[in-house]
Protein 1
Amino acid sequence: MTHIATTKYIALSSFLANAARDERIPAGLIKLIESVADACSSIATAVERGVFDGASGNAHSENIHGEAQKKLDVVSNDIMMGAVESVSCLRGLASEELESVQMTGHEHSADTPDYLLLFDPLDGSSNLEISGIVGSIFSVLAAPATDAVLDESHFLQPGVKQVCAGYAIYGATTMFVLTTGYGVDGFTFDGESASFVLTHPQLQIPENTREFAINMSNERYWEEPVRRYVRECVAGASGPRQTNFNMRWIASMVAEVHRILMRGGVFLYPRDNKNPQLAGRLRLTYEANPMSFIVEQAGGMSTTGEMPIMEVQPDHVHQRVPVILGSRLEVERLLRYHDEAAAA
Ligand code: AHG
Ligand code: MN
Ligand code: MN
């Protein structure tokens, strides 16, 4: 087998150094991003080795959402925490698998900005036992420049305040996808050099698509604008859209967003009345916000159906939110259907 020299690709570390030199990312953020990327390559290995390391199956515990934790949810959370907690600019972190926010103990430094990290250590973990696609999602916020003790209130910033967001996907290849507000870049893990290298620079989501993703088994719980949209897609060439659509559902937001970045599409986990106390299935601060930042930086759109996701003011770190995101023209159509339903 011949190998193409991966030296022709820029390593993540060089990419970050160049971006800092061009002031596309604050220099202080480099260490944090590299530590998150290191954690992601370790999580990829942990996922791959789960069955050998006794880390497959359920942990017999529940997270804050009342969901059964897999052993690998817990392992991935420990890997991420272990990788970032010594990063001196990181003042605190929040995770899907931690009941409350946790402070690192690092003091505020007057010279460099401080940050907060929010993450879903393992997304789509119901796919683990079928060797399906899983991932990790993260969001970085600025921490207030203060010596005072921080608490959850400092994490409650709308998504427009994110300074960086990204995800890793553990699929046929392991990739790390990143934005610091200057477009979206995709890095593939190269096992030979044991590093992420830039393979997908400046990703752009096509504005048009004929592919949608939604959990159809929830149809009876949806609101009318979403029912109308899906009904029209399913009607295909003989319906009002006059074209045939395709549908995908991988049960991992990382996998759905990655597909949308690669070839367009729209992903919905909308508000439903399955459990009227909850606004939707997905979590705002460590799932919806980082993915919205990425999608919008790649030319797509993201909304709750009523407002841009990244403008939602969080009340608590584990809050849920309805999610509609992807190719711009389809998200605009969904927004129009929501407006028309509200006006009727
Ligand atoms: P997690 O594994 O972190 O709990 O997230 C799973 C989420 C999301 O990634 C996916 O889109 C959705 O839950 C799948 O929901 P269904 O079980 O309704 O398919
Ligand atoms: Mn998740
Ligand atoms: Mn998770």
Note: DSSP finds seven helices and 17 strands in the chain.
Protein 2
Amino acid sequence: MLAGKDILLIIGGGIAAFKSLDLIRRLRERGAAVTPVLTRAGEEFVTPLSVSALAGQKVYRDLFDLTDEAEMGHIELSRAADLVVVAPATADLMAKMAGGHANDLASTLLMATDKRVLIAPAMNVRMWDHPATQRNLATLTGDGILTVGPNKGDMACGEYGPGRMSEPLEIVTAIEAALTDGPLKGKHILVTSGPTHEPIDPVRYIANRSSGAQGTAIARALLTLGARITFITGPADTSPPTGAQVIRVETAQQMYDATLNALPADAAIFTAAVADWRVTDASASKIKKDGSGTLPTLSFTENPDILAKVAQMTDTRPPLVIGFAAETDNVIENATTKRQRKGCDWIVANDVSPETGIMGGSENDVTLITDQGPEDWPRMDKTAVARKLADRIAQALTA
Ligand code: CTP
């Protein structure tokens, strides 16, 4: 299963680094190539010579190594692999990853990669339990980073508890699972997400409260099932999923153009909260108040309905087109009409009345409407909704 796979292995500075030497051996025994990266702190625990001897290739250590840049730049290094593994992932490396730092080779590679990342945390039990580490872990998991361990047990520092790095064979199993092809392998799925911003003038715009959380969670769940994702996002609060092709847009018109450009696709999921109107002739310079008490008047033009346009295409219509219906009244009735009016296959309806706390919150309460009628799902967090929807999509596309 690992034969022919290329693993970029980042070895952090912890006592568990000695186990990474065995990990390299186990991976190579199974036919994988290992490209090792050693942090400065990692060098205090294992030598570059032993790492490179076991890996059978040079060990990368420095961000500003001109020879390496001439041979293979850090961007390329981070993308040539099938999977990036961080073992041991120290508290410091996890903090850097969660904070988006790029101040050495390891952290820069982790920021630049477009591949999945698996971390094997290892640290003292108190450091693991520390709220900062747990906060960073939650951020990393939310970003789609995979984890293995840590295990509970006696630690090198004499304490007992969770913090021991997983054993090399456990990490090998996690690597195999991360590289396993899911049911959506070979399928291209387009996801729109977030709000759009419609300019009034160069400094002002009209926006909405969408955070992009549900769209990001859906894209992540589909990535986990092996799909290739084009993620077209407006200016959202949530960071886009690792491993997707991300296209950032501002306006509805840009989102529409990017969507057409991304076709053909096997499925398209429109989770974006697209502004229905844009300001006609947005001003090229800042609108000033002139002191006369006369207020500016804005006139609006309707934006393209991206979902409806794609659902009604005759040539490149994706076989499965899914819309969302954010409603405040008569949810099922309005969403059922919306499904017919827009011509999509499924519509995911939800009640976004302020008292539900759904818009901008972490939970969602949805009804899936298909040609079989409405199907009420229990209230669950947005990640669980995403997983359930991704499973349904996989069933539909592989039936
Ligand atoms: N949508 C879209 N392009 C637009 C407007 C909406 O692609 N210009 C998509 C959304 O991504 C969502 C679905 O259409 O999947 C429904 O969006 P919603 O805002 O609920 O519907 P509206 O078209 O605005 O209809 P209404 O004004 O009746 O609520």
Note: The radius of gyration is 24 Å.
